[in-house]
Amino acid sequence: MTRAAPMDPPRIGVRIAGTGRAVPSGQLTNVDLARLMQTSDEWIVQRTGIHTRRVCDRSKGESCLPLAKEALTKALADARMDARELDMIILATLTEEMPCPPTSCQLAAAVGAGPCGAYDLSGACSGFVFSLNTAWSMVRAGLHRTVAVVGADTLSSYMEYNDHGRATAILFGDAAAATIIRATDDTSKGIIAQAMHTNGARWADLYIPLTMKHFPAEDPPEQAMIGRLHMNGKSVFKFAVSTFPEVIEQTLGRAGLRAEEVDHYICHQSNARILEAARERFGLPAEKLYVNIDKYGNTVAASVPLCLDELREAGRVREGQRVMFVSFGAGLTWGTSLWQL
């Protein structure tokens, strides 16, 4: 029996057709936090670069789903397309509306999409970049022509705004942002190189326990901390500082490019000091590594697409450029997605 020759990959390009973002109405400034816990504006800014963050007001119905709907609606309008043209919705989130159904399915109904595929992807702060790589693979393989990738997280629901929760409460904000991925005849467009990694042995550096059994051996269980975010700040900071430049170098190597040949590095906004260290490591000008953590805090899966939408709106990110998306977070996870736009 003659073995069939492997199929050639379909010659399909992939482009970013539209973006959109949404943030809650409420703001929580460093001055506000100083009234709730032992901290100060100077202390927070010096260590994180954050001045304020957006926080959902549950009494106004603000949560993950409404934010995701607004962001996706704006992205569809930016792409000049109808929601019924979507083949798939991937929602990167760890703050779903409920365990069942997937929030992505509710999102599809909310924007008038369907029948299309929809699923949630839980990758924490790496969720959007992992989802973006997944969407590209689907379109590149010819399985779908149009995929919406949404990052939406509202970690304020897992915060404790007092001295006990100070280490995490100063960091996180709520937001959503969406990107429309579409097939194109221009085969030069799409991912040049990408990376996705995890070190699951370090899961206890950043976690949210839901039962007493979820606490690791080194972290004494507390009933009051059920449903609250736990973070080993020093360990996560060291991980990010070392991993961030390593994964950028790895991706540049796979693409055969030098750091200066990439037009923008759109990175997860976890800490301004980490971003500045990476920028200096590669000798990048400030305009090539965007920072908005001062306005929003760490918005988890929404962080990277939030930056992308602001840059596109300002006309700074445009077709023909090379853009690397970089993320790292709970899991521990880290990854990249290097695009030719």
Topology (elements, then pairings):
Layout: E1 13-22, E2 26-29, H1 30-36, H2 41-48, E3 52-55, H3 64-78, E4 88-92, H4 103-111, E5 117-121, H5 127-140, E6 146-154, H6 166-169, E7 174-184, E8 190-198, E9 206-207, E10 230-231, H7 233-255, E11 264-267, H8 272-281, H9 293-296, H10 303-313, E12 322-329, E13 333-340
Parallel strand pairs: 4-5, 4-6, 11-12
Antiparallel strand pairs: 1-7, 2-3, 6-7, 8-13, 9-10, 12-13
Could you name the key traits of this structure?
341 residues; alpha/beta; Peroxisomal Thiolase, Chain A, domain 1; 2 domains; five-stranded mixed sheet; four-stranded mixed sheet; 10 helices; 31% helix; globular
Principal-axes geometry comes out as globular
Number of individual domains: 2
Q: What's the β-strand tally?
A: 13
Q: What is the typical, i.e. mean, pLDDT? A: 93
Proportion of residues in β-strands: 15-25%
> What's the CATH class label of the largest domain?
Alpha Beta
Distance between the termini: 44 Å
Helicity range of the residues? 25-40%
Helical element count?
A: 10
Lateral strand order in the biggest sheet: 1-7-6-4-5
Q: Main β-sheet: number of strands, strand sense, barrel status?
A: 5 strands, mixed
Contiguous runs where pLDDT drops below 50 for at least 5 residues? none
Q: Spell out the CATH superfamily of the largest domain.
A: Thiolase/Chalcone synthase
